[in-house]
User: What shape does this take?
Amino acid sequence: DYAAPELLSGGLPDPRADIYSAGVVLFEMLTGSLPFTSSSPHLTIQRHMNDPVPAIRDFDPELSDDLQAIINTAMAKLPGDRFQTASEFSLAIRKGRVGRSLPPARSSSCPQCGAPLYRDFPLCLRCGYLEARLAPALPIGRAGESRARSALLITGPGEPGDRFPLDLRHRLVDFVSRIGGDPRRIEKRIPRLPFFLLRNLTEQNARELGASLSELGIESRVINPDNPEQRRFARRKIARKFGALYPRILLIMAGMSGGFVAQLNNAPQVMLPLIGAGVFLVLPTVTLIGFLRPEIRQNIEGSRIPTAALAKLASQLEQPQARSVIQRISLSLAQLEREKAKGSELEQLYGGFQEMIAQVQALDGELSRLRKGSPGPDELKVISQLESTLQRYLDRLLRHSVEVDRVRLAKISVGGEVQ
Assistant: This one.
């Protein structure tokens, strides 16, 4: 009833797990009830891991919003979003309010298991689903990189010329926000199928993004300009879209050009060539350029920290504690980058992880190899030694991850109350 989510999921705890438990105690003291109860221990565990903290005003309307904020912070699902020390928790209780404002972390649900996905983190912490992230855009015109430049064409569901389904557009906007793109163009209008979502991608990144979109029910195709078959596919799709939409565009233009009719009567020898050029040259060219324009703008620099690579590494580890620690590290670094930390500061913090993560990966692989089959006495002795070594590295990683969280919280502290 009082355990932190990372304990219940088999992760490696640190002192912030005790802060979660203290938050449960505070909730119980104020309301006379535990925050999460159910008919079975399994359901209680699931509620601790997934459900938001209940509103304390449902138990006592006179309790304040500031007390709710304190409990919400103490009982945050992720250790990095809680009070980082008991002193910070105690100070918030004495002052009656939280001394910092944490941005909301959640954005949507995992398409495989329905668990919450975190905006800054590409891995589902429940089922291990790994979502792609937008890699740095390739600089246009750089020698030797033209062959790597690919595009992602959204092709369905639907036929060329159809509006992109509204429910899928909401999912797409959310997905684009998570991967690091700018969704404002799609938010303002509903595109017609097919449309280019992104350009200037590496082919591998385009395929990864396409695979993540398919999990959302969105059909896409990678278009590499150096691949004749892919070029022909894109041309056929765009041509069908043009054939479906251009007559409508002409009707709209005709309805807006009443003044040209009068001019045509006055000077047909001048106006007829102009109208012909507009209908058969200018307007089709402008329309096609609009069809080829990508809907999403991307950051040329991209992420300075390989968060997706860390998350992918974590998903491949066999030891649950190692997996949990590296997931926590990559999420903390991603959130720190979102707070606009300096590049040198991020690289320094990430650099402190690299060697230890490599050692953890090597130890995890060796332990997995030795545990297969029926290890003998000598193998069991080696396994015990490797487990002790792995535990020391995990302890060091945890201490470093706490430092990353302290730096992140310092950047979002209010009035300097959190030091």
User: Anything to note?
Assistant: Residues 100-107, 140-147, 414-419 have pLDDT under 50 and may be disordered. The first strand starts at residue 106 and ends at 109. The two ends are 31 Å apart (CA to CA).
